[in-house]
Amino acid sequence: MGTRDWEVPGYTELHLLGEGGFGAVVLARHEPSGTLVAIKYLFTRYLGDPARLAAFRREAEFLSRVDSPHVTRLYEFHEGPRGVAIVMEAIPGVPLREVLRRDGVLPPEAALAVLKGSLLGLAHAHRAGVVHRDYKPENVLVGPGRESKLVDFGIAVLAGTAGLPVGTPAYMAPEQWHGAPATSATDVYAATCVFFQSVTGRRPFEGATADDLRDLHENAPVPVDMLPEPVRRLVARGMAKDAAARPSAAAEFVAELETAAVAGYGPDWEERGRGRLAQRAGALLALSPLALFGAGTAAAPGAAGGLAAAGTGLSVGAKIGAALVAVAVGVGAVVGTIAVIGDGGATPPVGAAPTAEQEAVQVSLLTRTEAADGFHVDARYAHASGLSDPALQEKVNAALAKPLDDFTDYVRAGLLNSTEDPVVTNDATINRQDERLVSVRYDLMVESSQFGNHGGYTTMLLTVDLTTGDMVTAADVFEGVADDQNAMSVLESRILARSPGGYCDGGEPFGGERTPLAPSDLQPWGILDVPALQLGFRADGVVFGLATDARNYPMACGYREVVVPYDEIDDLMSVAGRELLP
Question: In Å, what is the CA distance from 319 to each residue of 34, 73, 76, 310, 561?
Fold first, then answer.
């Protein structure tokens, strides 16, 4: 058994959840709020091991980058002379491994529901530049609230990172065995392997040794004949030997999954699948430590994906500590540093420590759940706190909530009498947040055939200036693009330099003629008057969101994003635009 002689202050430990070679995970209660959390400790004997410390820090950093209802959330990271710990969301769920151990297999609809939730979580991670590399049944938690969550980013890496072969052999993609650069396709392969196991009761490849498994993953055909016919093509795509032949992004694979699921199991496949999943998880969860200590099914999060105490205190999306705080601690002649990273959905700031004024501003993702005039809302939106001017904070939050408010009004206006019970839902991602601005991507959807075969949906990029509360547009950032075609053409040349194949992977515009960007593309155009060219910000560059049908591409090409690094485009910026550079 490992040892440690330190506990994170402000918590009462309740139960040892697990212990491995390098550390332990305990269930604890956050004393100010009463919220249950999971705390992952590194054993004391490894505090002097630079590699172990670096891995612990890296896991906390990656968790802080990813904000998704399908990924466990980081609350705090503590590092000091006496210990290192990651404080995370305590999830009322059981590992998929335990569900499969008890039931053997899942109905295809339930397995598809798990895969979809996992792919959505992976999509958020990939968007943040993180590849998980160890997707397996042990790292997927299934909850009685019908959700699944991805956990354990212990061996995750930044996309494009190469190195020694790392992972769990039964689920490792061919390129992973060679230590090739990690990509989103690596995670898609592993998730598809687990889906195969969930449906058939066995892994796609069984080998006596790691070398046997390597040979099978690299050379053996995928045994799709063991699968139900409706999902065979899906699995063949997800487990293609060549990473380039797999879906290039987890989000892309979600669309393929939904098409296959509806065709094979009907439009209500997900409702049935998640219901069966919840039944299986609920029985196992009743025996878990979270149920014993008061976080069983009654407290299980339906929409928010976490545990929240009543009233004020720690909650999903809230921060226990500041965004990034460095505190010098003197113990005799020893001086250490305690770093606390809170989860606000954005990448922690890089570089110099922020000022107290900067630390006061926090942007979190909150959940809105309500019944509204014949439909339901179960969606997330960004919310700012800590601004010193109450009027400014109110203006900022009105702007941040506007996409969800407007989409809800759009659904209300377009909805006919129906027995469908439609649901307004979304994905929300904070792409950048600092003392000057917050930039958010909203993927808004309504699950109703009244808004098209696949429901109504739109993607919005929103950037709000935290010093004024005003929305930031391309016309504000780039000189002349609102009224000068030459300026817009130069801007498009920089965008196309990062997307040399055009705006639709594998697709050509009608007649081979792409419609060039024009100043008119900054005017109201699509659903909710979203312009055909949108602007956002990430830590690494400017995000351009394009409606490809406005560029003369088929509608199937959909929405496309291109990220242009700041140093490739800052010479086109106005004075006001340059002030927004990180």
Answer: 15, 11, 8, 16, 30
